[in-house]
Write a structure and sequence with these properties.
There is one protein chain. This protein has 14 helices and 19 strands. The protein is an alpha/beta fold and about 425 residues long. It has 2 domains: about 5-180, Flavin prenyltransferase-like (Rossmann fold); about 200-410, 3-Layer(aba) Sandwich (Rossmann fold). A hairpin with a 5-residue loop joins strand 6 and strand 7 (about 160). Helix 4 (about 90-95) packs across helix 7 (about 130-140) and helix 9 packs across helix 14 (about 400-410). The N and C termini lie far apart (about 50 Å). The structure holds cytidine-5'-triphosphate. Cytidine-5'-triphosphate (CTP) binds near residues 320, 321 and 339.
């Protein structure tokens, strides 16, 4: 087992503070020494004795305690990693401004350790331009932002802003520790050696959405998320800051991305719109359900009630790619995917040309899918076209290689 490292878990004052107990516990079980630094507001949501029992250490809150030992500097210097979970909108603003009016702010300023934050707030606060700008500032300084996810918030409302689950936060934190402590992984292709995407903010959707019919059933598709994950992985290893909007991935997401889990097409739309607001490049690799059931039953549909045939009425979902393309900031490049079962190469290309014209994106990755092609496989065979319908590149091989070819093409070429 690796030697114990010191992880400072900063807890700020949001209702999600109760979930921070899970984060602390996971690090302790992992064999790390955990020092909890909680704000006064955090202790209104979760008790100090609980945190002390779980962390097996005293919990620090007060800047003016332990002055003789210069506690904020001591904690900051001892940290191998700092994780702030939950990070409220207020604490994010303070971090972005470099404020140090409490022990946590001082500890963070006094530390050179990697910083991971897990935002948690209401959707309106997350989407507020001030928060968006603060998050962009923190990301530009190398802070790793985990989540937030989309889901049930504290009240009856649903939206983006829910703190990522403790296991997701811990996985991202351990990945950050690993990245900080080890020599970079060998690059997967020659073109990936250079961090040529450093400074870019890339948002990628991956996986397949699911539209619930009742509490136990859904309408879904066979996308595994592998190509979107390969794109995210390639972009991270080339130095980009990557947000992965993930709908039911069948394989684990790569380390180093900001993960935003979603379930339905509507959730994916909300998450993509929020994440894409300050993105340089948006890639819609997810398979999005075109329709959802008009009504979702509260109880399981019983065949005694439905009989020999069952008709389900569906309503069209928004086309996320069309919306993003129409409302994009200037200079943003948008890449769509086209999943087609057409077997004739020329006809496939024509379908792609029609699709890019309808979608309004800059590039389209045309991807043949079938019972044994495209989905859940490790290889892929794609044609990338631009808005004029011209072929920019073809790529065939592992999804990782295809990912690098797509990034090479859409980043180095000005959009058509
Ligand atoms: N897409 C989207 N929102 C939808 C449907 C699709 O954003 N409601 C995006 C996909 O992520 C992909 C592109 O649009 O980048 C094309 O998806 P595809 O399934 O190939 O095409 P559809 O638009 O669904 O059209 P059709 O089913 O007629 O082929």
């Amino acid at each position: 087992m690796s030697p114990a490292r010191t992880i400072v878990v900063g807890i700020t004052g949001g209702i999600a503070a109760y979930k921070a107990v899970g984060v602390v516990r996971a690090f302790v079980l992992h064999g790390d020494v955990v020092q909890v630094v909680a704000t006064d507001a955090a202790l209104r949501f979760v008790g100090k004795p609980t945190l002390e029992a779980i962390s097996r250490n005293p919990v620090h809150t007060d800047l003016y305690e332990g002055v003789a030992e210069v506690r904020h500097v001591a904690i900051g210097q001892s940290a191998d990693l700092i994780v702030v979970a939950p990070a409220t909108a207020n604490s994010i603003a303070k971090l972005a401004a470099g404020l140090a009016d409490d022990l946590l702010g001082n500890t963070i300023l006094a530390s050179t350790a990697p910083l991971v934050i897990a935002p948690a707030m209401h959707t309106e606060m997350w989407n507020n331009p001030a928060t968006i700008a603060n998050i962009a500032t923190l990301r530009s300084r190398g802070v790793i932002v985990v989540g937030p996810g989309t889901g049930q918030l504290t009240g009856s409302d649903v939206g983006a802003g829910r703190m990522a689950e403790p296991e997701t936060i811990v996985a991202a934190a351990l990945a950050a520790l690993e990245a900080a402590g080890s020599v970079a992984e060998p690059a997967h292709t020659a073109s990936a050696v250079e961090p040529d995407l450093a400074g870019m903010n890339i948002v990628i959707s991956a996986g397949g959405t699911r539209e619930p019919l009742d509490p136990v059933r859904f309408l879904g598709n066979r996308s595994s998320g592998k190509q979107g994950i390969a794109l995210a992985s390639a972009a991270v290893s080339r130095g980009a800051s990557v947000t992965l909007v993930a709908a039911h991935l069948e394989v684990p997401p790569p380390e180093g991305v900001t993960l935003v889990p979603v379930a339905t097409a509507l959730e994916l739309e909300t998450a993509m719109r929020a994440a894409a607001a300050d993105a340089d490049l948006v890639i819609m690799a997810a398979a999005v359900a075109d329709y959802r059931p008009v009504s979702v039953r509260d109880a399981k549909i019983k065949k005694e009630d439905t009989g020999d045939t069952l008709t389900i009425e569906l309503v069209k979902n928004p086309d996320v790619l069309v919306g993003l393309s129409a409302d994009r900031p200037r200079e943003q490049v948008i890449v769509g995917f086209a999943a087609e079962t057409e077997t004739d190469a020329d006809a496939l290309l024509e379908l792609g040309r029609g699709k890019i014209a309808r979608k309004g994106c800059d590039y389209l990755v045309i991807n043949r899918v079938g019972w044994s092609e495209g989905f859940a496989t490790d290889g892929n065979d794609v044609v990338l076209i631009d808005r004029s319908g011209d072929i920019v590149t073809r790529a065939s091989g592992t999804k990782m290689l295809v990912a690098d070819r797509i990034l090479d093409a859409v980043v180095t070429r000005p959009s058509a």
